């Protein structure tokens, strides 16, 4: 637990300036250790697939990075500086976007309102900020069109949309707002084959702009399709950290289930 | 179904309570003698001003996914504060300010601040203790009314200073200024809810609080402000109540809470949060007032009003469920 390779931090060759470094991040719920000490790093423009069995601690880790859950111990460095997001607002301000597993949409308002949730475009009328609906609608229209997502009316409430359309809104949201680091927690759970392919393209496209991407997935094939590096979490520790082209799905499955331990190591 | 019919249907569903109001007015005008008069319609608007203002605050908090049972007691406390300070007989201290008109902003400020403080404390407790707003504001409903009894000693204040009374007497286009204040409140708060980020955020918090938190919206801050506004608006309702009765009694406004709830629900606000608009609430208030007036004119005993209000709330809830099914079919 403690003493898990702190020396490795930021030591990956070719990653002289990692975007985010996790140094021995742990989270306890009372006596239960959800995360026993996680250390790995993400570079700019790098896509990291975070794999692990149910209950391995992936979603806990995402919540810690995205703000909303404070780690019990350990530290994080974001762009070389000590970083701790006490709320999602702080993480967002630092440039970290998150797409959660359970959809984070307000179904009682329309597509435009959801797209701009928390960062509405406003103009001042007598000093009072007023929503600029037309400007927002244009942006959403453009963003969805360029991603090839079809939603009949941007003014329909999200409750009337299908699961795939809802997920498309979230995915397009992070592509549009970008930031510096994107966390995706099982983003394709409700998508069809074609939409998933488009989603994976989106991720590569985002990464090519120099944005770091962490994608959590259960589907080995997706991880191998999109990731540069694969990090496996097992029982709250990093059980493997390896470049995609240096491993195989079978090896990764062994890391997930625990048949090989850290032997596959962060050698990269 | 072609898009045009669909659009019309959506419009009707969104504004159902207004159609109900018009329907009720037409029916009463036809069948109740003497109902169809400008004076009667003015009276309907006038009689609904206190309830209307109080309903705005209640609706804000309910739309944000919470609840405020304390608005009635808060209005009574603000009314009593203004009554004690500016009434000249009973327990009134009869404070005079020079010039006279200065009493208007001062009394209004006192009423709104008293309400705002209690509202903010409600909000703070709900957000900090993460307890159900129902329980927190139920406690306020009880202790604030208790406070009214304590500071008044169960007695009343009469003869409000004429400078303040002026608002209840002076008329503009046939309506007393108090009614215009209520209308202005509805316009202002409708705009806030529909056109500003704050209003949009309240609606979204009512719809999915987790999502708004994750999106970086400062949920707690927004909620405390909503509770504070509800309290402040209830204080304003109390101020109007003092003007209307030219004084304050210890049991002033008892029962208004349930009428406010009725108006809010009839107006299309869902108690689950996230759904409803303030113009709808105003229509709900007017609908209740229109029915009260009809009952008065027909000479029915006033006790009937309560039965009818209760049935109306039931009807509103049923109607809401019915609207949901239609909408689902539209989608």
UniProtKB/TrEMBL annotation, chain A:
<dbReference type="GO" id="GO:0005524">
    <property type="term" value="F:ATP binding"/>
</dbReference>
<dbReference type="InterPro" id="IPR050107">
    <property type="entry name" value="ABC_carbohydrate_import_ATPase"/>
</dbReference>
<keyword id="KW-0762">Sugar transport</keyword>
<dbReference type="GO" id="GO:0016887">
    <property type="term" value="F:ATP hydrolysis activity"/>
</dbReference>
<keyword id="KW-0067">ATP-binding</keyword>
<dbReference type="Pfam" id="PF00005">
    <property type="entry name" value="ABC_tran"/>
</dbReference>
<protein>
    <submittedName>
        <fullName>ABC sugar transport ATP binding protein</fullName>
    </submittedName>
</protein>
<dbReference type="InterPro" id="IPR003593">
    <property type="entry name" value="AAA+_ATPase"/>
</dbReference>
<keyword id="KW-0813">Transport</keyword>
<dbReference type="InterPro" id="IPR003439">
    <property type="entry name" value="ABC_transporter-like_ATP-bd"/>
</dbReference>
<feature type="domain" description="ABC transporter">
    <location>
        <begin position="20"/>
        <end position="260"/>
    </location>
</feature>
<keyword id="KW-0547">Nucleotide-binding</keyword>
<dbReference type="InterPro" id="IPR027417">
    <property type="entry name" value="P-loop_NTPase"/>
</dbReference>
UniProtKB/TrEMBL annotation, chain B:
<keyword id="KW-0472">Membrane</keyword>
<feature type="transmembrane region" description="Helical">
    <location>
        <begin position="172"/>
        <end position="194"/>
    </location>
</feature>
<feature type="transmembrane region" description="Helical">
    <location>
        <begin position="38"/>
        <end position="62"/>
    </location>
</feature>
<feature type="transmembrane region" description="Helical">
    <location>
        <begin position="12"/>
        <end position="32"/>
    </location>
</feature>
<feature type="transmembrane region" description="Helical">
    <location>
        <begin position="223"/>
        <end position="242"/>
    </location>
</feature>
<feature type="transmembrane region" description="Helical">
    <location>
        <begin position="304"/>
        <end position="322"/>
    </location>
</feature>
<keyword id="KW-1003">Cell membrane</keyword>
<keyword id="KW-1133">Transmembrane helix</keyword>
<feature type="transmembrane region" description="Helical">
    <location>
        <begin position="281"/>
        <end position="298"/>
    </location>
</feature>
<dbReference type="GO" id="GO:0005886">
    <property type="term" value="C:plasma membrane"/>
</dbReference>
<protein>
    <submittedName>
        <fullName>ABC transporter, permease protein</fullName>
    </submittedName>
</protein>
<dbReference type="InterPro" id="IPR001851">
    <property type="entry name" value="ABC_transp_permease"/>
</dbReference>
<dbReference type="GO" id="GO:0022857">
    <property type="term" value="F:transmembrane transporter activity"/>
</dbReference>
<feature type="transmembrane region" description="Helical">
    <location>
        <begin position="248"/>
        <end position="269"/>
    </location>
</feature>
<feature type="transmembrane region" description="Helical">
    <location>
        <begin position="74"/>
        <end position="95"/>
    </location>
</feature>
<feature type="transmembrane region" description="Helical">
    <location>
        <begin position="132"/>
        <end position="152"/>
    </location>
</feature>
<feature type="transmembrane region" description="Helical">
    <location>
        <begin position="101"/>
        <end position="120"/>
    </location>
</feature>
<dbReference type="Pfam" id="PF02653">
    <property type="entry name" value="BPD_transp_2"/>
</dbReference>
<keyword id="KW-0812">Transmembrane</keyword>
């Amino acid at each position: 637990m403690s003493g898990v390779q702190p020396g490795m931090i930021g030591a990956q060759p070719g990653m002289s300036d990692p975007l985010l470094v996790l140094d021995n991040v742990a989270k306890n719920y009372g006596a239960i250790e959800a995360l026993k000490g996680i250390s790995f790093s993400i570079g700019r423009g790098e896509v990291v697939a975070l794999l692990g069995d149910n209950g391995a601690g992936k979603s806990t880790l995402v919540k810690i990075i995205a703000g909303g859950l404070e780690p019990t111990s350990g530290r994080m460095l974001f762009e070389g500086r000590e970083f701790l997001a006490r709320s999602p607002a702080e993480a967002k301000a630092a440039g970290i976007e998150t797409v959660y597993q359970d959809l984070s949409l307000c179904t009682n308002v329309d597509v435009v309102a959801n797209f701009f949730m928390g960062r509405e475009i406003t103009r001042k009328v007598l000093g009072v900020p007023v929503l600029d609906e037309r400007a927002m609608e244009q942006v959403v229209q453009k963003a969805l069109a360029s991603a090839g997502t079809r939603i009949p009316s941007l003014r329909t409430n999200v409750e009337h949309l299908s699961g795939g359309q809802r997920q498309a809104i979230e995915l397009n949201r992070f592509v549009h707002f970008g930031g510096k680091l994107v966390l995706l927690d099982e983003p394709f759970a409700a998508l069809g084959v074609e939409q998933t392919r488009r989603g994976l393209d989106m991720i590569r496209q985002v990464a090519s702009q120099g944005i770091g991407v962490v994608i959590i997935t259960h589907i080995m094939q997706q991880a191998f399709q999109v990731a540069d590096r694969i990090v496996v979490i097992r029982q709250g520790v990093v059980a493997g950290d390896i470049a995609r082209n240096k491993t195989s799905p079978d090896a990764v499955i062994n890391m997930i289930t625990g048949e090989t331990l850290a032997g596959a190591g962060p050698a990269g | 179904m072609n898009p045009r019919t669909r659009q019309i249907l959506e419009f009707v569903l969104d504004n159902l309570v207004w159609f109900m109001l018009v329907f009720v007015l037409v029916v009463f005008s036809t069948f109740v003698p003497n109902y169809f008069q400008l004076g009667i319609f003015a009276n309907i608007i006038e009689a609904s001003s206190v309830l209307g203002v109080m309903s705005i605050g209640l609706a804000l908090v309910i739309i944000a996914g919470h609840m405020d049972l304390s608005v009635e007691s808060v209005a009574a406390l603000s009314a009593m504060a203004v009554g004690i300070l500016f009434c000249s007989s009973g327990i009134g201290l009869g404070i005079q300010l020079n010039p006279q008109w200065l009493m208007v902003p001062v009394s209004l400020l006192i009423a709104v601040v008293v309400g705002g403080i209690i509202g903010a404390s409600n909000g703070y407790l709900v957000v900090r203790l993460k307890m159900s707003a129902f329980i927190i504001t139920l406690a306020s409903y009880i202790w604030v009314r208790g406070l009214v009894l304590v500071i008044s000693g169960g007695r009343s204040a009469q003869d409000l200073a004429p400078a303040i009374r002026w608002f209840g007497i002076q008329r503009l286009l046939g309506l007393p200024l108090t009614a215009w204040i209520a209308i202005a409140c509805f316009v202002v708060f409708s705009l806030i809810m529909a056109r500003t980020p704050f209003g949009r955020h309240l609606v979204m918090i009512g719809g999915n609080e987790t999502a708004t938190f994750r999106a970086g919206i400062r949920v707690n801050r927004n909620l405390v402000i909503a509770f504070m506004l509800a309290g402040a608006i209830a204080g304003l309702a109390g101020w109007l109540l003092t003007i209307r009765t030219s004084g304050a009694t210890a049991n002033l406004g008892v029962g208004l809470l349930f009428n406010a709830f009725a108006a809010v629900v009839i107006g299309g606000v869902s108690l689950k949060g996230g759904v409803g608009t303030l113009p709808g609430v105003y229509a709900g208030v007017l609908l209740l007032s229109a029915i009260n007036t009809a009952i008065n004119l027909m000479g029915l005993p006033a006790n009937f009003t309560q039965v009818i209000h209760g049935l109306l709330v039931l009807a509103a809830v049923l109607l809401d469920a019915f609207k949901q099914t239609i909408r689902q079919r539209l989608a």
